[in-house]
Amino acid sequence: MGKKICGIISILTVFAISPVCANASVDDVNSAFESINGNGGHVEVSECVLDENSKFLHLMVVQDGNEGDGDTSAFCDKVFDAVKSFSDQSWYDYNYVIEDFVSVGYDGVITTAILDLKNDSRSWVAWGNAMYEDRISDGKILKKGVLEDNSNESSDIQDDSSFDSVGRLNPGVYIVGEDIPAGKYTFSITDGAGIISVYDSYDDYKNDDYRHSEEYYVASKKYKESLDSDLESINSLYSSEIGNLPLENGMCVKIDTVSVLYSVN
Questions:
Q1: Helix crossing, 24-32 with 2-22: angle to 10°?
Q2: Are the beta carbons of 220 and 171 closer than 8 angstroms?
Q3: What is the reported pTM?
Q4: How confident is the model over 93-104, as pLDDT tens digits?
Q5: What is the Cα–Cα distance from 134 to 142, expressed in whole angstroms?
């Protein structure tokens, strides 16, 4: 009986202790910020465990509204100094540390950083400004990319008024909104026989994704009449005109071995 009781006590002890061990790293991280929390800001700590080999530490660094003037402050520098020492601690077992720096009264994230402490590397973004990669130990910038403002650049999709509402299309690939206007089309075949394929997007065309396409077998009247065959049977296979075909911006039209006249409503 005594052995059974001891066994039960041992099992209960393991269950009671296990949750504390699982959260030990978070508790240690919180302890590392005790001396600076409340002096210009505070740090909120959480972790994400993907599997037994992938574990991430997330720090929400909140600086007071009177600190930094829209930039990171002395408080954020203290947080960074504390984080740099984590890799020397026996409890540190995270793959990466992810930091988001925000400020009370500021609408948005000031900076986001991803730290790989084991490899002395940090990648970070100063939102609206630039992206950087530097060394954690000495701050030397290894890579930099300046963010460009493209908000005033015109879209590749043109105004339909810049296109002709009627015209001729030869064999080729046409993107609606760039090469031809959007609208409801009538295609009249003027020469030869072939296929007109309409894809939902240019990517579908490039990937030969026929699940997102429609095919139309077409031939000119002159071509059909030149065949030594029953005209009624040929007409059932090939169309000389396609009407009321809706084409929207971004769709892709491929014309094989025929020439067509088009009109757009």
A1: 40
A2: no
A3: 0.49
A4: 898 999 988 888
A5: 5
